[in-house]
Write a structure and sequence with these properties.
TIM Barrel; alpha/beta; binds manganese (II) ion; 8-stranded parallel β-barrel; 349 residues; Alpha-Beta Plaits; 34% helix; binds phosphoenolpyruvate; 4-stranded antiparallel sheet
Length: 349
Amino acid sequence: MNWAGGMIIVLKSGATQADLDAVVARVEEMGLKAHVSRGEFRTIVGAIGDEARLRPESVAVLAGVESVMPIMKPYKLASRDFNAEDTVITVGHRRIGGKHLAVIAGPCSVESAEQTRTVAQRIARAGAGLLRGGAFKPRTSPYSFQGLGEEGLKILRDVGGETGLPVVTEVMDVRHVDLVAKYADVLQVGARNMQNFALLTEVGHTEKPVLLKRGPAATVEELLMSAEYILSEGNRQVMVCERGVRGVERSTRYTLDLAAVPNIQGVSHLPVVVDPSHATGRHDLVAPMALAAVAAGAQGILVEVHPDPEKALSDGPQQLTPDAFEAMMKELVPIARAVGRTLETDAKL
Ligand code: PEP
Ligand code: MN
């Protein structure tokens, strides 16, 4: 059998702490890393590392061990084999994952305190649960607006505090991880950085939840391998985000791969977020794709909203006005209910 660098050790329901300690010790003796996952009904230990070091038979004989199975997928901690139950991430008083649906909204870029505050107040009332906004912007052109940097982070932090919305913002550079983590509730790793392994490792060392975007040319498996980088550093709070991949269509910015939602959920326990704004690049397509994403089972939606999209310093064509966002939310609520999701919001809808 090909053990592919990982095995799952399932403990008996009556296993004691001493049994667990003995399993962990045996795994570590083999030179592997032990990752303990306590589910509602049973505890499992993921043993991950060099394939040549795996000795399943030496663990199977220990007291308290029910079974030992290979993890066939190249990603281990991200796989459903490792964790059968959905991961639910708590951010402030919001939850994302499982049956919990969070709407993350806000401007593409933080441009000013006033702009950010106007959007935050409107989206909070309309049912958003978290505020997004870029302070460090990955722009195709070096001559385009690059973001306000730390000043933008401070604005986000203040406005998030005033409106009761935890904040999500992108960290682009390993040198900024500590700085961004000081202000943000969720660290976003952008599509262009999905395979920046140094950055993934660094955010894996923080205790902040991470929103990891799919690269425009990345497969689902590559996305989950990138999630694995973060998880393997000890940060278990990772959500992945479908934001469109490069296809043949030119009238939209990217092609939204909505099948990725149930596709990922079938093989992984991580929450799945959908970003219809960057996927389509067109404000007229954002609401229909957001609704479809919720119907498909997404646990988060990420939508760009600007008080005056025509004057936006980045991504104007895809940003919704606050009125359009509110109209979208009115349609989204009954769909969420129909598919058994609870919307994470303080708004009375
Ligand atoms: C963003 O969400 O601000 C962003 C730049 O998105 P992406 O990395 O998906 O292009
Ligand atoms: Mn944007």
